[in-house]
Fold:
Amino acid sequence: MLLEISSHSQFRIGICISMIILLLGVVSIYTIKTMDDINQNYNFILDYNKKISNFDDIKVKYERQMTIFESLKSEENLMGVGTFWIYNTEIKNKIYDFNRLILDNHHIDEILVDEKSSELENTINLYYNLHLEYENSASNALSYFYDGNFGGFLLEYENLKYLQFELLEKLEDIEQMLEIIPIYSKLSVDVIITDFQILQWTMIILVGAVTSMLVFFLNQTNTNLKNEIKEQTKNLQKLNEKLKKVDKKREEFISIASHELKGPIQPIFGFVELAKTGIISKQEALEGISNIALNLENIANNVLDLTKIENDELELHLEKNNINDIVSEVLDSEHYNPDRKVPIKTRLDLDVVMNLDKTRIKQVLRNIIDNCIKFTETGDITIQTNLLKDKKTLKLFITDSGPEIPDDVLPKIFKKFVTKGNYKVSGFGLGLYISKKIIDAHNGKISAYNKNGHPVFEIALPIVDFDLNWKNSVVDDIEKTLKNN
Structure:
């Protein structure tokens, strides 16, 4: 968890530092761009001023053109007509050069603000159209002159003078606009510096904000780390407590295993010695040892099942089984139990085929029967099955003629290690605890109580799917049996 928080904090702090570096990089790049724009502005202004100076030359050319027409009026110099058109070509070339600089430049939107660009374009278009009109008037005047229509020539001459006056005024307007346009140009030094200052202030504000965020994140990270260290310290303390409990369970498990498994081993040596001395036959000794082995298997299963139960890993393998056959198999295994001092009797009801885990149910019956054997010196042990009237529940009763279960033990008999004082008997607690868990897993119920001065263990198993084995000996007594339940 600490590693995750550290990585998350490092990510946020890294983002802030990256943003600061990025903003400083933007400022650096924009500074370089600003210097480049100023240099571009300087070069543009030089070319711009050079082109503006051409307008003075255009005015001179217009004046010389009028001088040529005045000579024609007095018929002094007819050779100047060709020069008129040379001047006219030079004027148009200069206008074309300027158009290439301003109007035909695809960077015009970057050079001039939109309103100034449109105003200049409209004025130059008006001027150019007026020049074309001037050019047509001059051509008409020359036509009248060569045709000998001197009156027509004079009228056109007066119109030409008027047009020239208009052209010179338009040139004045254009020059005035051209002189102030650099001030409003997007490449103007003032505009560039103003934009750069705005960027600088913006970057300063952003860097300040990001720096504040960085300081906040650092403080928050420091606080979070302190809190997380406290939390992890608590978690470690809890984990330490859990480890102590696990270690206690491990020691408990080892103690249980050694204690439970050690008891049945001694009778094995007893059977061997009895067989050697001839007191009992080898067959009887083998049967006794076999029974003890089954008991050992049951004890081992209990110890292992305890671990599964503690870890919620107890599994059932359900299949159809005859309940009476299960009881018979358990009784067969108890036939040669050396600890058994009393007979085991049965009163079994109808043989019901149920969906059970046979191994687990046998384990439950052996646990209860073995506990009855340990506490019963005289009398008998009885196993009884009853099929209830609703045919949805089967009950098993296991009783013995031993002493009652003490009142202080009875409420907690199905818990682990409840035997204290005079009742420290091997298996009296662990086996019943596991038995209850197995019955619970079958959705059944198990209980213990005292009746007529003797203990009774009652198991109720739900019948979900069953068949009845109709035996000739009980066919006639079915109704009677069900009525007596």
User: Anything to note?
Assistant: The radius of gyration is 59 Å. The chain has a mean pLDDT of 76.
